[in-house]
Every structure is written in C-alpha cells, then in structure tokens.
Amino acid sequence: MVEKKADGPTTKRHRKALDFGLCLFNGLTEQRSNDITNIVMSPLGLYLTMGIACMCASGKTLSEIKQSLNISQSYKDEIGDEFWQLFCKYYKDQFLPFAVDIFIRKTATTNEPAKSLIPTYLRGKINKVDFNNPEAAASAINNWAKEKTSGLMPEILRSSETPRNSAIILAGVMTIMRNWQHSFVTMPKGKFNSPSGRLRNVPMMGLPTTSLKYRDDQSSQFTAVDIPFEDGDLSMLILYPYKDSSIQDLERLLRDYDLIELRRNMPWTNVSIVMPTFAVESNIDFSKIWKKCGIDSAFSGKSANFSDISDDRLYITDVYFQSLIDINEFGMGVKMEPSRSEKFEITSETMVIDRPFIFAIMSKKHRPFLFGEVRNPTLKGTTGIGKSKSWSSSVRKTADAIGKSTSSVEPSRRSKSESKGRKSKGKDGRSLSNRIERASSSTALRLNSVNPEVLDSNNATQQTGSTKEGKKSRRGTKEERLSKQRELKPVSNRIAPASSSSSGASESVKPQRLNENDALHRKGCPELKKKRESEQTKPKDYQALPQKFKRESKPSFASSGFAKQQLGDEKGKGSHYLNEASLKGDMAEIVSRLTSEWASSLTKHSQGESEKNKVKREETRQSKTDAGKNKHRTMEQQRVSNKFSDKLDPEASDNCSE
Questions:
Q1: According to the 3-state scheme, what is the secondary structure of 387-411?
Q2: What is the pLDDT, as a whole number, of residue 657?
Q3: Angle, nearest 10°, between helix axes 9-29 and 43-56?
Q4: Of all residues in the chain, what percent carry a pLDDT higher than 70?
C-alpha cells in the first residue's frame, strides 16, 4: 500500500480551491439524471470570485464565507495574500485570460478597506453600475469581459438577466490556450454513446502510443489518464467510467474522492488514446447551490453585511462566471491547419473514449483551473443549466437564418421560371422582365411624340420580342438615323455653306450675320493681321477702361505716391502716361527705402529674440534647480513608502509560490 504524502503549504492552498469547486459541481450533478448537456466550470475562478466578497464582508457574512472557503486567517491582508498566491504565477500569462471583479449599485458609497484590498490582492476594482438601466448594466459587464479576454467572451449576461434591484454582482472569466506536448491525429467520425442510450457521430482524434500517467482503478470502476500540454505545467486529467458503470456513479464517487492523491500515484504507462474533440462554454447559475456550500447570508437582503465596501445595505444579487474550453487535435483553444496525416490503428489496448467522461485542467501543483463533464461532444454550450448560452451563438444564428430562407421551398422542386424570377427581383419587388417591359413602353411613348416612324419600329419590336431582328428594326440603319437627326435639327443651328457657288444651296439656306472680323477674314488675312497689330501697339487710356477692370487690376507704379509726384502737369490733363525714365527713378527710390526699413526691422527682431532667449534660459536654470532640490525629498519619501510596499503589493515582493 502506497503511503499518503502530506500536503505542503502550496498544495493545501490549492486543495481548498479544488474542494470548493467540487462542492459546487456535486450540487449541479444532483439536479441531473440523463441530461445530455455538458458542464465546464473553474474551481479556482469561483474560489477567487468569492474571495472578493470575503474582502468586502464583515460579521456573520464574513464567517460564513471563510468557513466555506476553508480560510483560517483572521486579518484581511493575510487572507488576501492567500488569494494572491493562487494565481500570481499566471497573472500576466496572455494565453490564460483570467479576471474577477465586483459591480455595485451606482448610488452606493464605498469604504476604504475594500477599495485598497481588492486591487492589491485580487487585481480587481470596484465598478459602479446603474442597475436601474438593465441594458446599460449588462453592456458594462459584457464590455469588461470582452476586454479581459481579448474578445473571446463578448457576452456573459443579457439585459433580461439583470434585475433592476441588483445591489452587488460578482463577475469572472477564464479560458486557456495551450498546445499538446504530443500531437493527436485527425480521425474519421466515430460513435459516441450519450446517457440516453443514443449513438451519435462525433469528430474523433487519436494519440499514438505514448508514455503517459495512466491508472486503471478496478475497485472504483474507472480509468484515469493525464495528458500533458506543451508548457510542461498544465495537463488534462480524464476520468472515464467502466462500461458496466455510468457517469452518475462516477459523479457520486467524486464526492469523497481525493483527486490530488490520484494524480500523485498514477504510474507512467505506454498507452494510445482515441477520444472526441469538444468545445464547451458555460455560465452556470449557482444561486441554489451556494447555500449547500455554506454561504447563505451574503445573498440575503436582510442579513448580508458588506460594511467593508459600503455603508449602504448591499447584498450579492448574482454571480456570473463564464468558462470556456476548446479541445481539438492541436491542443486547447488552438486552431491550425492539419499538418499530420498518419495512419492510426485501434488495437485491443487502445483506450477508446466513446461514453460520457469527466475532465480537469490542473497544474503540476494541482491548481484546479477548469473542471467539467462531457455528455454530448456535438453540443458547444451548456444550454439548460442556469444562465448559459451557446459557444457558437453567432454561427448558429447565421445557420438558422440560412435554414429558414431555404426551408420553405426545396431547390430541387423549384421550376426554372421560379428560380429566374427569384434571381431577377430588384429593390422594388418587381421582376427584371417586368421592369424592362415598363421601361420600353415609356420610351416608345416619348419617341412616338417626336416621329411617327418610331412607333412602327416599336410595334415591330414588341411583336418580335427581344430578338436581334427586333432591335435592328427599332433602331434602323445608320443612314436612317442620320437623316432623322438632320430633319429634327433646327435650321438656325445648321452650318452655313463655305461658298455661294451653288445657287440652290445658298438660296434655300440663308447664312447667319457675320461680324467685322469674319468679314475681314473672308477678304484676306493681311488686313486682319494689321488690325490686330494696331490694337496691340495703340496706348490705352487708363480712365477709358471699364469700371470692373479698374477694381480688378493690380496697383501699378502709376497709382503709387512717387509716380503721382512725377506726373506734374500731366495729372490735371486726365492722362496718366509715364515715361520710362521716371519709372526707373521711382523704382530705385522705392528699393532703397524698403532696404533700409527691412534692415532696421531685422535689427529690432534680433534684439527682441535675444531678450526672450535670456528669459527662457533663466527660467530653465531655475526649474532645474527646483527639480534638484525636490529630487532628494521624493527619494526620501520613496524609501519610507517602500517599507510597507511589500505588504500592500504582493507583486512588488517576489514571494509568489509555485
């Protein structure tokens, strides 16, 4: 007989969480018989969720929670350190999303003990929610879960599940992603026996002969195997009942069975396994089970005492903890393309798991992360157990919508005309052929008002249908279309003939009146060229220009002060002509004045910049001096605060147990 090994401090701590989880699991299994739904829960997560309640409770409520969680410490900081040691090793593991938090009524006050204990030891915070608005409250909690799991769990409760008179809601989430240490092989679907006796075809996977921890307990009528993950720390323990036994017998056995001792005494054996793939997500309602595990007053509005978090009378309305597990041939929560196609032969020594079984995801030091039961691998959720929902609800909604759209009429029984009509329907609900007929008829009416010959072509088209001959008869030849355009075009828009040599053409069509330039162009280009040159060389009178050109024209030297002084007697005559010499003199004087003004402004600007730089350098020197004086003061304050930081922040003190 193997001597039982004594538990160390770490194992004792983990055993408390496992016993608390098994208490809740046994309460669930007592309500089931031949139910085909699956279960997954997190003993460690639920233990820490109630740990938040322990940090907030006082009096009788605190005593009940401590007794249920098997906590012997008296002070809250010692209790908090016990909670921290349970998950501090995996706190920053991105492949193990885990979080617990508390949501209280928006109008409630908050006290200091819980405000400092919850963030320090459980890495949570007090969230105030308006429970009078169930949709907003549910959205706040769901957004929290979505953020903590990086979108893996976007919804853990619905607005209909949130009572308006809620005071405290505890929430938690957990899922794990790991690769197998020994990869499985994809296999064809196999038979799985459900508790109701029905055979189901389910996807299967196989593990070739490998050295694993394995135990065949004939006295307890079950077989146990421990399959490790790639990290070497986590593993999945499978408890598989004998053929003569049932899953209900195994559930009753676990009420007094020591799983930690079982894992310690499992020998290494070469074994091959065939088992189904499964994925389960659940948010189980434990409202009727807390009392069986010793927690009663915390859920009562009359006797609950949470004075360490608020002076208001608060009580726990509900606890929502959602767990997720997805087991396939690549690992847990891992999706990859199949890379192995090996042949797998099932022998008499192969462990074939084709009946309901119990699984547990645990660490080397027996931390109970996930615990559950698979009765039907084809189900993705725990529908029927409390407040649970389907793991692939969005996919199922899409499938239901597709099923409804195709279930009314079978495709094989539809006629060709019906299928064409369905495909050609537009936004207005009419078929494409009907819309084409309406468009063609309206077009024919418009054309008939212009030319009666088009009516004949449209009638011919309606008789011939949509054939090519009908289209040709409707459009006519190219020559006919051109002739119709000439007939319909007004006479005034026609082009005048180039010459009047043909008397018939000139008499029938009178050309439009030509302007002077066109007349010169007809007589010859030299005269037109001379006229344009004379217009360019002729000086223009500024006052003779239209008003709009005076407004829009840019200011010239003629309008400047220097130019007006040079005008002299010419200004009174109404003439603004300037000679070239006066313009050059004005230009030189303007350039000299601008140069002197620019030099003086540049000198003033440089003097102002130097003064600003002096002030800025003085301010910088003063700020550095003040920072140097304050540096020693802040360092001294930090030394004093560090004396107590290890006690208040376990993460700063490297005391996390394995």
A1: CCCCCCHHHHHHHHHHHHHHHCCCH
A2: 63
A3: 100
A4: 60
Give the HSE-up count for residue 649: Cα atoms under 13 Å, Cβ half-sphere: 7
d(CA 553, CA 626): 62
Per-residue model confidence (pLDDT) at position 162: 84
Tell me how far apart the alpha carbons of residues 173 and 159 are, in angstroms, rounded to a whole number: 18
Pairing of strands 168-175, 316-328: parallel
Two tokens, residue 515: 């302007």
Report the CATH superfamily, name and number, of domain 180-279+327-398: Alpha-1-antitrypsin, domain 1 (2.30.39.10)
Which of 53-62, 322-331, 343-352, 507-516 is the least confident region? 507-516
Packing angle of the helix pair 516-523, 525-537 (nearest 10 deg): 130
Is residue 458 within 8 A of residue 442, CB to CB? The reply is: no
Q: Is 626 exposed, middle or buried (0-12, 13-18, 19+ CB in 10 A)?
A: exposed
pLDDT band of residue 132 (cuts 50, 70, 90) is: very high
Q: Which residues pair with 222 in a beta bridge?
A: 217, 241
Closest Cα to residue 333, out of 153, 488, 195? Answer: 153
| All residues at 6 or more sequence positions from 426 whose CB lies less than 8 Å from its CB, including other chains | 432, 435
Q: Where are the domains of the chain?
A: 9-177+285-325, 180-279+327-398
Cα separation of 210 and 226, whole Å? 11
**Non-local CB neighbours of 192 within 8 Å, separated by 6+ positions:** 199, 200, 201, 202, 276, 354, 355, 376, 377
What confidence score (pLDDT) does residue 500 get? 39
Q: What is the pTM of this model?
A: 0.62
pLDDT for res 521: 52
| Rounded CA separation 576/543 (Å) | 8
- Distance, in Å, from the CA atom of 113 to the CA atom of 309, rounded to the nearest integer, reads 7
The pLDDT-based confidence of 531 (bands split at 50, 70, 90) is low
Q: Measuring CA to CA, how many Å separate 457 from each of 260, 452, 464?
A: 94, 9, 10
Q: Which residues does 205 contact at the CB level (< 8 Å), separation at least 6?
A: 184, 185, 186, 187, 274, 275, 276, 277, 328, 329
Q: Would the CA dihedral through 466, 469, 474, 475 be positive or negative?
A: positive
606 vs 209, residue with greater confidence: 209
Q: What SS3 state is found at 153?
A: coil
Q: Which residue has the tokens 């075809």?
A: 201
Give the separation between CA 454 and CA 95, rounded to whole angstroms: 76
Helix (H, G, I), strand (E, B) or coil at 573: coil
Is residue 351 classed as helix, strand or coil in its secondary structure? Answer: strand
Give the integer Cα–Cα distance in Å for 209 and 274: 11
Q: In the predicted model, is pLDDT for residue 112 greater than 90?
A: no
The pLDDT of residue 482 is 67
Q: How many beta carbons lie within 10 A of that of residue 437, not counting itself?
A: 14
Q: Can you identify the CATH homologous superfamily of domain 9-177+285-325?
A: Antithrombin, subunit I, domain 2 (3.30.497.10)
Q: Which helix (H) or strand (E) holds 598?
A: helix 580-648
Structure tokens at 632: 């020693």
User: Which DSSP string corresponds to 182-248?
Assistant: S--EEEEEEEEE-TTS-EEEEEEEEEEEEEEEEEEETTTTEEEEEEEBTTSS-EEEEEEE-SSS-HH
Dihedrals phi, psi of 414, to nearest 5 degrees: -80, 145
Residue indicated by tokens 């928006």: 106
Q: Is the pLDDT of residue 342 over 80?
A: no
3-state secondary structure of 654: coil
Q: Output the pLDDT for position 620.
A: 77
